[in-house]
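User: Before I run my own analysis I want an independent prediction to cross-check against. Here's the chain; please return only the structure tokens and, at the end, one sentence I can use as a sanity check.
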Amino acid sequence: MNIFSILASVVSIYTLLCFVRVMLSWFPGAEYSRFGQVLRQMCDPYLDIFRRFRFLRFSSFDFTPAIGLCVLMALQAFFNSLAMGKAFRISTILSMLVMLVGNIFTSVLGFFAVIILVRLIVYLIIGDGQGSYSIWTAMDRAISPIIFRIAGAFFRGQSISFVKALVTSLIALLLSSVLISYVIRVLGGLISLIPF
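Assistant: Structure tokens:
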């Protein structure tokens, strides 16, 4: 076992700890337990680096932890490739960075698409759910600015219903994700062919 294998293992363990730290924040009070406090002390200094980037927050959605985890996974892949004796080339690093940025972007688009799909299904089954405050009301407040902005790009000056905005946004996000994935894969492959 060489130094790069050890570094890849350390990064893998730290990635897992950061993931558990993020998951604990979803459960009220869990991050304030003894275990949660230990994880906060270990992981928050790293995760706080990404929290500075305000553009990674949309409405009430915060993608900064996902970006931090993706960077750790890219670092782990880098150490694994060095451990396997692959040649260290600048083009390989550039290709990995392009792929990382593309994967992060398509992950964000995919996340929004799943949220919109779930909301659309629930809307079609139970209606708008606006009778009393519910999780759906909170979700609607969070996603409405985004879906109406996306749909507004296609229906300029027209009145857009909530369902129409959901469907339009879902289709736009899915098509964008597929297109970006294809472009990033081609671009990453072309960059990796550079001989330096």
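Sanity check: The two ends are 28 Å apart (CA to CA).
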